[in-house]
Amino acid sequence: MSIGVARSVALLGLQATPVTVEAHVGVGLPGLTVLGGTGPSFRQAGDRVRAALGAVGHSVIQRKVLINLAPADVDKRGARFDLAMVVAVLRALGELPAGDQVFVGEVAIDGGVRGVPGVLPSIRGLHDVVVPLANVHEAAVGGASAPVGVASVEELLAILKGEVEVLRPPLPPADPLDPPPDMADVVGQPEARRAIEVAAAGGHHVLLLGPPGSGKSMLAKRLPGLLPDLDHEAALTVAAVRSVSGRVGAVDRLDVRPPFAAPHHSSSAAALLGGGSGIARPGAVSHATHGVLFLDELFEWKRHVLDGLREPLEEGNVRIARAAATVTYPAQVLLVGASNPCPCGPARTGCRCRPDHVERYRARLTGPLADRFDLAPLVEEVPADALASGARGEPTEAVRGRVARARQRALDRFGVLNARAAAGVVRDTMSRDALRVLVDAARRGRLSARGFDRAMRVARTCADLAGSDVVGPDDALEAVAHRGRLDRVWEVAA
Fold it and tell me: Which of 61, 272, 340, 441 is deepest in the core (most CB within 10 A)?
């Protein structure tokens, strides 16, 4: 009895699990049986492996081959185990020496090797890895030292036998990054600009309300440019989400720019939160992690889809349960919503919508989700004189500097941004007069219990932007004014 062993990796969401591939080649009725996995592509692996072996001159048609993937209770799907199966069979036949390499990749019936999604989170922390040539740059980004990329099974055999020198293609030249959109392009809108700055400094969610063409989308698209570059761990998390999204070659270098995702308002819950058949894939909220999630036309979104954001916004991750498995993806986003105040815009001649239509339109945003927005500035129509003057606002670089200093103050004080700091430690930095402002607002019904805590955090950010260690009454008044706009969401078109 001949047994060959190779190593591979199973992936469930972003969680990798080592897998041992065992191959037994013996006498008996000819055939190739694969055990230990599920899904259509896995069930067809036997035919792919047998054809690929035949393409390189190692026919097993007249042999009985049994391949087992262990542990059996780990969910194993997809074609990522093909390469390890080929190596295990050839080791069982005595054609290849034993080794500890980790193999991830799909084989073609002509002996080629195709790329697979999810290589980066699969090989994090591993070193001696063999992947398809299409994934070799992604493996290098994930931290694998000197990953081996192969384009065919024949090339793989030559490398494992030591017959050829391993050629590692250089990383593609980094294209120069386009500069982010500049805040100087936004004309007027002092209240909205201030809210965007506070949001960037403290990680607070923003709701922009105003007529069409007033600059809501412009402001949202300029918010990522105010955020600092991602640290190494955050950049790897963003790259891992892109890697498992299904597009081979989506990651070829580590991108430190904060991501920006803007799904269409007709998107389904699966597109926004993640989903799909089998193992759920990440949605837009995960693709925007450590960056900005922009929901334009917020009141046009389906109500149940928007409500699905409530737990991810609080917890910083999204859990998706399916019959096959439950997966968890990151969802640490800065949410920006934008909407017209009523279905008609309003039109320049004034709102022409019936009251019940306006009420139904605004009811898409439920109270619990609206309460999670910390800032709600009104974006007013820009006067024609201001547009004709050509005057430019403060540039991104100047605002970005203030944001960076304020964020560093929060990190030095709490270890996290103000939006995620514990309410108790934030309260300790507030003056008695600042707390009295918030208490008065709560007594008047302008702040819920959650709103009170969030207003404290916004006030703390305002103080950080001003360079103050203690939150004063003016900071608290600004925080209440920002949240107070939420109370008048339903009146802005009147």
Answer: 272
